Amino acid sequence: MQRQAVPLLAPKSPIVATGAESRIARDSGMVIFAEDDGVITYRDSSKIKVQYHSKKLGEKTYFLRKFNRSNQNTCRNQVLLPRDSKNVSKGEVMEFSVECKRTKIGDEEVTRFIPGCTSEQKRYLDEDGVVLVGAYVREGDILVGKTSPKTTGEVSAEERLLQAIFAEKAKSVKDTSLRLPSGAEGVVTKVLRYSMAKGDRLGDDVIESISIFVTSKRNIQIGDKMVGRHGNKGIVSKVVPVEDMPYMEDGTPVDILLNPLGVPSRMNIGQILESCLAFSARKMVFYKILESYFGGGLETLSTLLSRSESELSSLSKVLESYLRERKITSLDEAKSKLTQLDFTIILSKSGFRYDELDIKVLTPIFAGCKHTELVEMMKASGIDNSSHNGRFVLFDGKTGERFKDPISVGVIYMLKLDHMVDDKIYARSVGPYSKITQQPLGGKCQNGGQRFGEMEV
Question: What is stated as this protein's family in its record (predicted)?
Fold first, then answer.
């Protein structure tokens, strides 16, 4: 199932991991590692220069992959971050290619002068007739302007007379430009041109080949498919504003609602255990920060939270001001009075998001967290599981009324899959028919009709 996942704009690592994630990231080939200790001397969006301490290595330049297309049409994009060497951008990279060939009646040509096209239709083309990098193209827009000579059957008697009189000068051509197919849109991120004149190896009778790469970003919407790491896949059935989502007693809204009927029959209880364990780890961050603050300083958490001492120092100042405003002077008083919402406010004032500071939990296969350890961790993070077993009171976001029964709330790692509704939804009113059977063609790519088979009768 994870092979069908698409990269996201802001990816995050799971709180509950198995220990194999680091090895998978290394073997993916998408991570650039430093070969030795050194200093970054230059960096931008496309490359990074590292001056190594070793004289043998010296200074090396590493080029980042920008909007590379994978075999699954997803986008692989490396971004240099302060703490990570790699980040992946969600999206889809589509490649469209066109070739100019040498025919018996003349050569095909890439040009901006296309018969029957207005200047509005050619607004994104350069002087050679190729779309500009950075242009936002939509369905039907011209990517490469191309003309081909008309065959004898396509040429009228008047045009043949002009050809006989003026020879090649009056040879008529037809529009065979490469256009963006239906349902597609995005930004042109790369243009590759190969030509026989430059010595590129092309196919027989191919004069020039042009590839256009179009990258599109998609928001999650109704009909898209998502999955956890326990086979708990499902389709998004509704997207509502955050103020309409159910919220906890301290005002924290939930992000996603899952149907509880998807657990008992499939018996994948791992998703419930992950939910409780990750929720405990996230709440424990707050307690660890409070314990370190009252115990001598937040700088001691730099290794645990993978943050620099300067970042934690600014967080310490905001926390000190927040506690002074509420006249909180002891650790026990802070644990009892401050809620998750207070923690979110403190983090936002420090420049963090509430889900950016996490304690990672490692549970290897066949040697994972035991039930007793999970209960102890929930107690240590302040979750009372004696009465509700990890369930909490929730309130309706629209009416503000309390739900009748407590509901399981936790933190899970979700993936968005490549099965998106924009790629699947299709309808037609009038379209092509088969010349032999006089029935509509089949398939979305041929603008075909919907099959109404014997099972539908």
Answer: Belongs to the RNA polymerase beta chain family.
